[in-house]
Specification:
Layout (H helix, E strand, L loop, with lengths): L2 H10 L13 H9 L3 E4 L4 E4 L2 H9 L4 E2 L18 H12 L2 H5 L2 H16 L3 E3 H6 L1 H10 L7 H12 L10 H28 L5 H7 L9 H32 L1 H9 L4 H11 L5 E6 L3 E3 L2 E3 L4 E5 H4 L34 H18 L4 E2 L20 E3 L3
Bound molecules: protoporphyrin IX containing FE (HEM).
Protein name: Cytochrome P450
Family: Belongs to the cytochrome P450 family.
Keywords: Heme, Iron, Metal-binding, Monooxygenase, Oxidoreductase
Length: 398
């Protein structure tokens, strides 16, 4: 890592001053939206963008706002690429991530959700995060990638270390954390190299075999691209889906009317999940870098400066969503930006939606009279980039 990248990485971990110590980011977002929607933060040396219109504009304009930023972490991949490289790479992985290949996972997702619920359903008590929404996406993606069942625990441990978020209370320095991630990435690389070699010889209908088959103009993904893509799936897909399911259930629990409606009308679930993606977006912000000088809403952004767009704020913008601070389970249309916008729009959105629909439906079917534990104190996961909770203890009819 060169000096300027190291400096930028350090800065990326600083919490914006307006958020430090705040219970929730929403008051800060509102203040910032109401005072122009775009601001420069001297301390982080970054622009922050808050209004729906401007966030949408930045994410749609890859020519001026590059994805090659400092916050890529140990895995440099699709998410940090610009066209033309991004277009070719994305077209290749799209071939493996089709709606059909995702829909094929429905039965397995249902079975995994069922197994997790079997363990707790009889007790009338569970922690929705630790017992349910955390293990589910890791097991789903491990199976899709062809990880052997006996290696699941190992895989989960690597995956955890790879996505470990910066916890200001952990006492770890940014450098220590980067080393932990680097080591996990290396172990995963070794593991996936074996899986890929094996699938080359014995192709199946798993994701790795599909990725090996994908080609454009006779061009296949090379080994480094295959490896970094497998790692990206873990980084991009697990904690986000955990938080989608956790945030949605918390939101339903806080809105008992909506919860009662969901028990009575399960068909309401897809739109209630979209609304919870808007209302409590699992990813609150994304980072871009200005390619050249550009003016945004009258502010001059200089070439190479960092631009952080806050989708968490855009999704609460009254100018776009009437009653933006209310949770409206049947809101339509709902053009939220929780999965991003433009050429990098989340590749895993169909999978995340399917997992959440199947998992939450199964949970509501099995757990009647769901309530948050009396006196539960909810702790948010650290960092301003993700939005989720560490635990969500609930009781229900056993
Ligand atoms: C990209 C959110 C689940 C794989 C993105 C982006 C967002 C996002 C905001 C855009 C990044 C950018 O523009 O820089 C989410 C949320 C999820 C979720 C909120 C769950 C609720 C998943 C899952 C997978 C996945 C389950 C795969 C298993 C990806 C990949 C990209 C991406 C590969 C990069 C696409 C590209 O650069 O072209 N996601 N994601 N995501 N996501 Fe997701």
């Amino acid at each position: 890592m060169n000096k300027s990248t190291a400096r930028r990485t350090q800065r990326a971990f600083i919490t914006p001053r307006g958020l430090a110590g705040a219970e929730s980011p929403y008051a800060w977002y509102e203040t910032m939206r109401n005072s122009g929607g775009i601001h420069y933060d001297e301390e982080r040396e970054a622009w922050d963008v808050f209004s729906y219109e401007l966030v949408h504009q930045v994410l749609s304009d890859y020519k001026h706002f590059s994805s090659r930023t400092s916050t890529e972490g140990p895995v440099s991949s699709l998410i940090g690429m610009d066209p033309p490289r991004h277009k070719l790479y994305r077209s290749l992985v799209n071939q493996a991530f089709t709606q059909k290949s995702i829909d094929m996972q429905a039965d397995r997702i249902g079975a995994i959700a069922g197994e997790l619920l079997d363990k707790v359903a009889g007790t009338g008590h569970m922690d929705i995060i630790q017992d349910f929404s955390y293990p589910l996406p890791v097991i789903v993606i491990a199976e899709m990638l062809g990880v052997r069942p006996e290696d699941r625990e190992l895989f989960k441990d690597w995956s955890d270390r790879l996505v470990a978020s910066v916890d200001p209370t952990s006492g770890q320095t940014v450098q220590q954390l980067t080393e932990v991630k680097q080591q996990a990435a290396e172990e995963l690389y070794r593991y996936f190299t074996e899986v890929i070699e094996w699938r080359r010889k014995a192709p199946g209908d798993d994701l790795v075999s599909e990725l090996l088959r994908a080609k454009i103009d006779n061009e296949h993904l090379d080994m480094p691209s295959l490896l970094s893509f497998c790692l990206l799936l873990l980084v991009a897909g697990n904690e986000t889906t955990t938080n989608l399911i956790g945030n949605a259930l918390l939101t339903f629990l806080e809105n008992q009317d909506a919860l009662e409606r969901l028990y009575a009308e399960p068909d309401l679930l897809p739109s209630a999940l979209e609304e919870s993606l808007r209302y409590r977006s699992p990813i609150q912000s994304l980072s871009r870098r200005a390619v050249e000088d550009i003016t945004l809403n009258g502010k001059l952004i200089q070439a190479d400066q960092e631009v952080v767009v806050w989708m968490g704020s855009a999704n609460r913008d009254e100018a776009k969503f009437a009653g933006a601070s209310q949770f409206i389970p049947d809101r339509k249309p709902n053009p939220h930006l929780a999965f991003g916008q433009g050429i990098h729009f989340c590749l895993g959105a169909p999978l995340a939606r399917l997992e959440a629909r199947i998992a939450v439906k199964a949970l509501l079917q099995r757990c009647r009279h769901l309530h948050l534990d009396a006196g539960a104190e909810l702790t948010r996961t650290p960092g301003s980039f993700v939005f989720g909770y560490k635990e969500l203890p609930v009781t229900f009819d056993p």
